[in-house]
Design a protein that fits this description.
The protein is an alpha/beta fold and about 325 residues long. It is about 50% helix and about 15% strand.
Length: about 325
């Protein structure tokens, strides 16, 4: 099979039929063998009913349905697991991503041997309250990951099949799939300018929380990508340094008092010295950091579990 198109969705009943017909026209014009995997993320409208009808009309329209809303990352993760095509293409269900981009994305993967191609919506139809934070987010991600992409969060991407089988997208890490792919050893990552269309139906499903969760996820990813296999290198190092600083400070305070007593001078109680408590807290925090690193090391060496999602139904898979 040439292409698997993975489309996570939540309450997009108005656009689904139009989107699938558009994809089918593009595939037929280019003679691609394909499947379209819709992942219904617990929709509460008639989205699943429409997808059932599409599946009856065309067996290439496949659906995975969650019992409840898990988020876009979960939808992509299970869609990637089910994808069988040589090239896997992701897009949003709101018609803001154009299926006309599919042939060129496919060519870049197959002929130019890219591992991943990310879309770049150079001209966006979004309000300034969204575009400015997005530009900052993309700048920060470039600096952290050293991947020179302009639009990390673009829903329109193309991957080699082996890439999607080797990345585990959890939480809200769908924004950082190129970073996850690089961490998994897939380093030939490029981008393509793609058309961004104004939303035709409904409204955006993302609120202000994305501007809080995005930077937090970036910090998490930066730490995990560097220390997930060796957490003791981080916690153990800083824990040991903090403990030594606190211990040496407490030792200095104790020696200072002994010298004062030995010389016959008045020496105040160690507990009257505020620096003693700073030294004590520093030793306690250093010990806790060291123990945290030790426990994290045990967990990372013994845990091989992956996230599980409660799937309601699978159609034609």
């Amino acid at each position: 099979m040439d292409i698997s198109v993975v489309i996570p969705l939540f309450n997009e009943e108005e656009s689904l039929k139009e989107l699938y017909d558009w994809i089918a026209r593009v595939m037929a014009a280019n003679r691609f063998s394909y499947e379209v995997i819709f992942v219904d993320d617990g929709s509460t409208d008639h989205s699943f009913k429409i997808l059932q009808e599409l599946g009856k009309e065309d067996s290439r329209a496949k659906t995975i349905k969650f019992r409840r809303n898990h988020g876009k990352s979960a939808g992509l993760n299970v869609g990637f697991a089910a994808a069988q095509g040589d090239v896997v293409i992701t897009m949003d269900a709101d018609l803001q991503d154009s299926p006309d981009e599919i042939p060129e994305l496919y060519r870049l993967i197959k002929e130019e041997n890219y591992d991943l191609i990310s879309g770049w919506k150079k001209k966006r139809y979004d309000p300034i309250t969204k575009t400015i934070p997005t530009k900052f987010f993309n700048w920060a991600t470039r600096k952290m990951s050293k991947i020179q992409l302009h639009d990390f969060n673009c829903g329109l991407k193309a991957y080699k099949n082996e890439v999607v089988k080797n990345v585990n997208v959890q939480g809200e890490m769908h924004r950082y799939i190129p970073v996850l792919a690089k961490s998994a050893g897939f380093t030939k990552i490029g981008e393509k300018v793609v058309q961004h269309q104004a939303r035709k139906y409904g409204h955006t499903k993302f609120g202000l929380s994305r501007f809080i969760n995005g930077p937090l996820d970036l910090i998490t990813l930066a730490f995990v990508s560097k220390f997930s296999k060796r957490p003791m290198h981080f916690f153990g190092l800083y824990g040991t340094l903090m403990f030594l600083v606190g211990f040496l400070a407490a030792l200095y305070i104790g020696i200072e008092k002994l010298i004062a007593l030995n010389s016959g001078h008045h020496a105040r109680l160690v507990t009257d010295n505020p620096f003693f408590y700073i030294a004590l807290i520093t030793m306690v925090l250093g010990t806790q950091l060291f123990l945290a690193g030790f426990l994290a090391e045990l967990i990372s060496r013994n845990s091989s579990r992956k996230a599980n999602y409660t799937i309601d139904q699978k159609l034609n898979l």
